[in-house]
Amino acid sequence: MVLLLIVPIGMVKRLNNQIMKKKVLGLLLVIFVLVGINDQAMAQRWFKTSSLEFGLIGGASHYSGDLTNKYFETKGFKPSIGIITRYTPGELVTFRLSAMYGGLEGDDAWYEDQNDPTRRNLNFVSTLWDFTGAAEINLRRLDMKDNSGVIPFVFTGFSVFKFNPKAQFNYDPNSPHVTRPGSIYTTLEDRDGEMVELQPLGTEGQETTEFNERKRYHLTQLAIPLGAGIKFKFNHKWTLAVEYGARITFTDYIDDVSMTYIDPSRLQAQYGPMSAAMADRSPVLHDELLNNQRGNPDKNDLYGILGVSLTYRIYGNRPGCPTF
Q: What is the pLDDT confidence band of residue 184, given thresholds at 50, 70 and 90?
């Protein structure tokens, strides 16, 4: 009897084990199928909602610094143009790269009394190259089923920009630079009207013996873009965006103006007569203002770009990260 009971019990255990194995295998199979279906659905949704766009961006660039007395000086707006690419992996964040070419300008003549003989009379113009990588935070989700819509956004990231301040040299035979004893300023008469690069002149005594701690500023700098805009999605292919972004820089020399006046004779000895002439462009010689403020070193210069972009959405053959 004992043997008869043991055999059926062993058979029952093996049978139960087989049933359990089948149930486990069946459950795993169901899980794999569900995961596969979910992954496929997620992949399809990812592919539909993600996008890679290329296009053009144009608008205007401007500067704010020691030669402006308000942030938006309309006289200083210069046309700008460039290219832009956007990659949107989801509904909330868009990554972008852009390269733009524009201009910057500032001029004391916009604000100063032209009859004041002690006015600074400083000005500059500069080309601008701006390379920006940023993340746009979309403030409104656009459902993937929608062919069109309006999406406000904000953006920030980093920028690399290149500038080169220049100013026109105007020869004045009555200038105190000409009449001061020992001056060789008269040798500049044949350069009247020439556009002069200011950075090589060390107009504030950069790297002279007396002001060696004032280092020559670099013409390529970093900045942090902060901006906002609105995207108008016409359909699945075309998007128009209007935006404005300020660039927070780490230099006060976009305009070649920052610190104090120094003795023109020192500039002339170190960098030549053009340095002295472009450092002090006032109708009177600033001997009495030596070491007085030429600019405000406690506040860095800024520049901004107002842009309108038109981009075309590119579709890939399969979902995957694009190569820029």
A: low
